[in-house]
Amino acid sequence: MTARIGVVTFPGSLDDRDTQRAIRVAGAEPVALWHKDKDLKQVDAVVLPGGFSYGDYLRAGAISRFSPVMESVIEQARAGLPVLGICNGFQILTEAHLLPGGMLGNDHLHFICRDQKLRVENADTAWTSDYEQGQEIHIPLKNMDGRYVADRYTLDKLEAEGLVAFRYLAHGEADDGYGNPNGSLNDIAGITNEAGNVVGLMPHPEHAVEPLIGTGRTDGLPFFTSILKKLVNA
Amino acid sequence: MSRTPLDTVEHATATPDVELPWAELGLKKDEYERVVEILGRRPTGAELAMYSVMWSEHCSYKSSKVHLRQFGEKAPENDALLVGIGENAGVVDVGQGYAVTFKVESHNHPSYVEPYQGAATGVGGIVRDIIAMGARPVAVVDPLRFGAADHPDTKRVLPGVVAGIGGYGNCLGLPNIGGEVVFDPCYQGNPLVNAGCIGVMRHEDIHLAKASGAGNKVILYGARTGGDGIGGASILASETFDDAKPSKRPAVQVGDPFQEKLLIECTLEAFREKLVVGIQDLGAAGLSCATSELASNGSGGMRVTLDDVPLRDSTLSPEEILMSESQERMCAVVEPEKVDRFLEICEKWDVIATVIGEVTDGDRLEIFWHGGKIVDVDPRTVAHEGPTYERPYARPEWQDALQADDAGKLPRPQTADELRDQVLKLVASPNQASKKWITSQYDHFVQGNTVLAQPEDSGMIRIDEETGLGVALATDGNGRYTKLDPYTGAQLALAEAYRNVATTGAKPLAVSDCLNFGSPEDPAVMWQFAEAVRGLADGCRRLGTPVTGGNVSLYNQTGEAAIHPTPVVAVLGVIDDVARRTPVAFQEEGQLLYLLGDTREEFGGSAWSQVVHDHLGGLPPKVDLERERLLAEILIAASRDGMIDSAHDLSDGGLIQAVVESALLGGKGARLVVPDGLDAFTFLFSESAGRAVVAVPRSEEVRFNDMCGARGLPATRIGVVDGDAVELQGEFALPLAQLRTAHDETIPALLA
Questions:
Q1: So where's the catalytic machinery, residue-wise (chain A) (predicted)?
Q2: 3-class DSSP assignment, residue B92
Q3: Count of H helices and E strands in chain B?
Q4: I need a labelling partner for B151 at 20 to 30 A (CA). Which of A162, B99, B255, B668 fits?
Q5: Which of A57, A111, A204 faces B441 most closely, judged by CB atoms?
Q6: A83 near A128, Cβ under 8 Å?
Q7: Does the distance separating the beta carbons of A57 and B170 come in below 8 Å?
Q8: Burial state string for B186-211 with b = 16 or more CB within 10 A and e = fewer than 16
Q9: Can you tell me the mean pLDDT for B540-546?
Q10: What residues of A are in contact with residue B163 (Cβ under 8 Å)?
């Protein structure tokens, strides 16, 4: 058997088809979900893909968070449904308060697209179990509003409880100048909730699943194999 | 507030002596008289608006079309061409049932006035052209030209243009895979912002801008119509009607990429359900253009009720509505029984859609406003029968002196140290330096099919996941070469783009162009234009790659000073399996470097002459299109059969520029030896055309040499991939770290 993983399309979603492909490449079955439809079609997990839903009007993710599909996603995520938010999807998850903190504009004020080095800080979530703790991986990054911020209390809690899932390498650590790309606090690239079923990150694992395409690396594939194994073995 | 009566056809007939502001709208006296002759009466205000905008240089190609005809007349026999010049974009058969459409357009003037919106709406416009052919857009490219890199205004224009391209293209989900950035003082005040787009469809999905079938409905969908980009129509409105309204509006349109993204998805869904008979995007000249072109390309006429157009500003006059260039709008012709389903799809995507008229069985385009008929014209006279000018042209008197000022006479480096310093200076110069600061502001990963993106020789996109079928696109243009010799310069641009496609392993198929020139009213500029078009048309015939469409941008001129003539040529290629593509980066130490082609002492217009001597003179490199063809065949065969692991075309900056780029991208150095018969300087800096440098695995050396020998292509072993420096034996060694600093830091230092 395989797992059915839903991918939500919001108006302005861009990486929905790429995410469906990544799910397919990992061996799972992608299921298209529509933002106006509350029905999650009984999927085993959901990915909120990247893009500029609602044109980033108001604030990235702020409008999508109120779409009918998100009512179901929020409810079921709280009940344990695995949910991954990539880039705009991460922004939507923070707007929906499924994950703490939020994203501001990059400190250099430019859109940035590059192959980004990350360290896996928590390999125990539903979406990261196929990585090694501390593993360094390259995942494409592309965003305008990618600077993770949270209040001191939240940051302390994230750090104390191991909820930082991915970290950019700090500026002295990255030999090639590919460290923290945007001024994210604590070099945070992605986080998880306490239960480990909801994960969000700014870089795009779905763009690193085929050896020939994009950066030519497949470092993003374990996101999708992690969840597949978890669901199939469950 | 008083209103003069509505200027209907009836009113115009009854008041033949009313003076209309035709001159302010840009019409010449004889052009206005021609309009009166066509109509047999004075035009109404609305008709005048339509004729003036459709007969503008931008829409009618009135100065250029006598020359552009050569692209058709000299077109090579080519089975791959499915749709040629004249439609929104050309369409090429790339095999396996797929068709590809591509085009390059300019948005030069708006981008100088308002860099962000000018560049953003340039992307939006070209993307709508591609959708209008029935294709899903899959990638964009942006060939750009700016004034001197260190000029203060460049710091205003360039960051805005780059942010605009990124802001719009990134938000549409289109990977940006290629283009160029060139600096030259000649573009100060006249930056060139060209934008290209590739779209993919199945053969059976090709759509055309055509309104056929009486009774079919004309549906306007997308954004509401506002007062932006109206330009001259405001004059007409304020003179004809009252002046108590917000008439001062921005001449540059404002883009909303989110609306365009919805427009793409909604249009493609309507195509999939076969709901569309004909389609046209609204770009320059807005509704005037869309209605007159749809009607004139179809079999019948068209009746439009302008009151039904959804407006952003209810005070707009009918003339303004007809001329508005509000972005993100399209016009579809739909059979009556399919209208409901079409509107449903629009609603699904939250896109406003309105039936504004229908196709009639007459041959007139009739437009109504408040019950009165304000336009009654033969649409062909608006869309296709604009004026044609045989502008005088003459070879400028300074051309001889320019060509006599031979770059071969410039002082050359005398010592190894000088040679080394000039290499460093070259790779750090703004034109040769890394453009990563710019291209990293563009998304090149989205859609998950990008095989190659800048700084590769051409961008490459996979179009079939099962078979690996892909397309490649390269754009090139060298204003310096073209200034020295427009005929040769245009062919060099073509040759370079053709070579760049072949270097990545793809077979060149077809050409689009964006011809950027100064004022056509200057005979010297007109001569440059005529020569460049003749060169390009002859070159395309020789290479077997037809021109499928393109764009002309004239008046890139401030006062007497025109830009360098800058034809930008885009070549589209196809590759059966993208797994066979050849990248620029050195892959493995120990591989052998071969220089393909002949190297001559050619420095006219070269990067070296510009960087070291600030010189432009002499003749550009010679073009040998037969040689280009042979080189391309060898590169494609070597890629297909796994004989080379990296390849880079040689163009501006010569061999050393290419080797440094391959080394930096691969993180591997090279040891070079000057081949017999050449001096070190010529070896490094000459810009002879028809050349590439390739890295051959040792196991493939014999086979590769045999192939080149048998086909008669000179292949010279010039060194090996090795170490962490670029070394010219017996002369100098430059560590990669030092080269990287020189190459990477120039642009951020100037512009960040």
A1: 87 (nucleophile), 204, 206
A2: strand
A3: 26, 28
A4: B255
A5: A111
A6: no
A7: no
A8: bbbbbbbbbbbbbbbbeeebbbbbbb
A9: 95
A10: 110-111
Note whether B192 and B143 are within 8 A (CB): yes
CB-based contact A214 B448, cutoff 8 Å: yes
State chain B's mean pLDDT as an integer. 93
Query: B541 CB contacts (<8 Å, ≥6 apart)?
Result: B74, B75, B76
Using an 8 Å Cβ cutoff, are B635 and B472 in contact?
Answer: no
Give the CATH number, domain containing residue A160: 3.40.50.880
- Kindly state the percentage of chain B with pLDDT values over 70: 96
Report d(CA B525, CA A223) in Å as an integer.
Answer: 58
State how many domains chain A has.
1
B592 vs B27, which has greater pLDDT? B592
B750 touches B155 (CB < 8 A): yes
- Burial state string for B374-403 with b = 16 or more CB within 10 A and e = fewer than 16: bbbbbbebbbebbeebebebeeeeebeebe
Strand-by-strand arrangement of the A4-9 sheet: A29-34, A4-9, A45-48, A83-86, A198-201, A188-192, A164-168, A112-120, A136-143
Do B446 and A21 make contact, defined as CB atoms within 8 angstroms?
no
Q: Given B259, B444, B448, which is nearest A113 (Cβ)?
A: B444
Which architecture, in CATH terms, is B9-63+205-383?
Alpha-Beta Complex (3.90)
CB-based contact (8 Å) between A51 and chain B?
yes
pLDDT at B1 over 90: no
ipTM comes to 0.94
Reported as a single tens digit per residue, the pLDDT across A44-86 is 999 999 999 998 888 899 999 999 999 999 999 999 999 999 9
Q: How many residues comprise chain B? A: 752
Q: How confident is the model at residue B237 (pLDDT cuts 50, 70, 90)?
A: very low
Q: 10 Å Cβ neighbour count for B92?
A: 26
Contact B653, B607 (CB under 8 A): yes
pLDDT digits (tens, 9 = 90+) for B347-370: 999 999 999 999 999 899 999 999
Contact B537, B74 (CB under 8 A): yes
Q: How confident is the model at residue A171 (pLDDT cuts 50, 70, 90)?
A: low
Q: Which sequence spans correspond to the domains of chain B? A: 9-63+205-383
The answer to whether B142 and B444 have CB atoms below 8 angstroms apart is: no
β-pair type (B192-202, B329-334): unpaired
Q: Does B257 touch chain A (CB under 8 A)?
A: yes
The residue written with tokens 């420095």 in the block is B603
In angstroms, what CA-CA distances link A32 with A9, A47, A61, A90, B174?
7, 10, 19, 18, 20
The question of whether A113 is a catalytic residue gets the answer no
Q: Are strands B372-377 and B301-305 parallel, antiparallel or unpaired?
A: unpaired
Q: Report which DSSP code applies to B585.
A: S
Write out the residue range of the structural domain in which residue A114 sits: 4-233
Query: Read out DSSP for B113-147?
Result: HSHHHHHHHHHHHHHHHHHTTTPEEEEEEEEEEES
Query: What is the token pair recorded at A42?
Result: 């009984």
Among all chains, which residue has been given the structure tokens 């710019």? B438
- Strands B507-516, B547-553: pairing is parallel
Burial of B522 (0-12, 13-18, 19+ CB in 10 A): buried
Tell me the pTM: 0.94
The mean per-residue pLDDT over the stretch B315-327 comes to 90
Q: Which residue in this structure is represented by tokens 């055509």?
A: B210
CB spacing of A51 vs B442 below 8 angstroms: no
- Residue B515 and residue A62: Cα distance in Å, rounded? 44
The full DSSP string for B412-454 is: ---SHHHHHHHHHHHHHSTTTS--HHHHTTS--STTS-EEE-T
Give Cα separations from B367 to A175, B374, B714 (angstroms).
66, 6, 65
